[in-house]
Amino acid sequence: MKKLISIILCLAMLCGIAAVPTYASSSEPEWDGDPVIFIQGFTGSPLIKDKGLDTEETILGPGSEFNIQKILSAVPSIVMGIAIFALTGNSILLSSGFGDLASDKLDKLACLADGSSKYNISTYPHFAEEASAASLVANGEEAYIPEVAITDEIRKTVPDEYFFVFNSDWRMGQIDNSERLDWFIGEVLRITGKDKVDIYALSHGGQTAATYLYYHGTENEVDNVVLNVPAICGTSIVKGLLGDGAANFSMDEISRFLAVMLHTEADLRILGDILPGRFLNDLLKVVFVDVFQPHALRFGSIWDFMDVETYKDYKAKYLNPTENAGIIEKADKMHFDCMANIGEGLRLARESGVNVSIMSNYGTRLGSGEPIDADFVIDTVSTSGAYCAVHGEQFEDGYTAKGTVCNNAAHNHISPDRTVDASCAYLPEHTWFVRGQYHGQAAYDSYTMSLLLKLLLTDEITDVHTSPDYPQFEIAQCPVDAMYVKFTNEISGRFNSESNELLVRNLSAEYSLVIRSIEADGCTFDCERRAVVAPGEELLIPCEGIDDSDYICIEITYARQGEILTPAFTKAFYFTAA
Ligand SMILES: [Zn+2]
After folding, report:
1. Is 27 part of a structural domain of the chain?
2. 358 occurs within a structural domain
3. pLDDT number for residue 252
4. Which of 279, 313, 318, 457 has the highest count of CB atoms within 10 angstroms of its CB?
5. In the predicted model, what is the mean pLDDT of residues 166-190?
6. Which residues, in sequence order, are CB contacts of 11 under 8 Å at separation 6+?
């Protein structure tokens, strides 16, 4: 999904024979861990037309000819189109410009009315033998290893012979993809001689893995599974883009997301001045509705991005019971069987011995602008099953946990900022929430990355109660966010009557931070005026008066030292009495 968004954003802004590794015999294993299968996000898997024939062509992926010449040839009509659109609001030339650019590519990706592929399309690597990092490296095909910032970290622990990339035709629905995953797991076990695999699955890949666990989670073939921001019940962004509602992307939020994606602390908020949000939104609507939508509606995957209620509505609106019967049959099964009962399915898998962990993000408005709590790309309720307040609001005073899945009175499953109730999540004891983390950006956040590796490669953390360092709710620790705050005597986001010292950490790798003020109702902080915190350093600040309430919001205003033109930041940190 992240890639789809970035492709759309980019468009908008631009206007062999595999070497097979050898494995130790099963009596003498050279690696005592499980093989790891990596499942990437939407549009991540390469797609190849006529694989092995004279007419072979890479449609998407390394070696794709989605080439610069073609993009340049379309620029004049896109530029003219943008100008005319900006002046008159008439989008015909604009969409034909994008249409010219995309039509050839989109035709090769086209599906028929029954959801099957129009052309002979396959993915690569397809077989487990060709999909290990060892095979890909030996064949000079390292470019087929995706998400390097994350996979490189995993490969520091897991030998390349035991690290596998799972690909699937992402146009197809998850009923198909999860069956392919079931087959692939069997192949990996056969090749490596191991009993179980570990799985790391991202975003759309997380939906594939969750669907697999729903149908095959009791078959004793999987040990650790980490679903990172899984699109388990879809995303309302797709609902918005396919519906009649206007998209309402915020340039400020997009600028910040871009900075995180690009791993830069540069202040990209200037983009908001260059590209007004309304114009971008109109442009996205033109690109998506006029150019992509007619194709996308024949992709099973697009239907799986809708929650059950949206599916019912849009099925009635867009699908013909006869012509589109092939799409409907699988999408019905996905929504009315798998999605409708997914919490139960994941819990059953856990009871059967699969260590399923979910990493969910919250605290950011859904990108398309609806007041839905999300990580910009996927609704928090979809990744976790938790109940969430309307974005920008908090649970009312006196709110008590729903307790539909966990009703243990000793557990506090409500987030410190009182916006997420995990007591009704798919897996209340095995879902970790990161406030302010953007979709798929674990690699630029020391905390999220560390949690991911521990859950995937160790058995050190058995649930959200195991370690004070990995509580159920934590805040993102990305250098772009710069500041991290907690009380020294409690886990993140909590305080108690003994709390009298605040820890303030500068997460930036580049800037010293100058603290201008620290404020909270009824509290005083003994902080030196304009205290400076160097990159990576911490400050301990004595405080008083924090034991009088159940809940505190601390606001810190700070600036980057030496950055005269950058406005100061004010960031709110929320704490609930432990
Ligand atoms: Zn619980």
Report:
1. yes
2. yes
3. 79
4. 457
5. 97
6. 98, 101, 102, 287
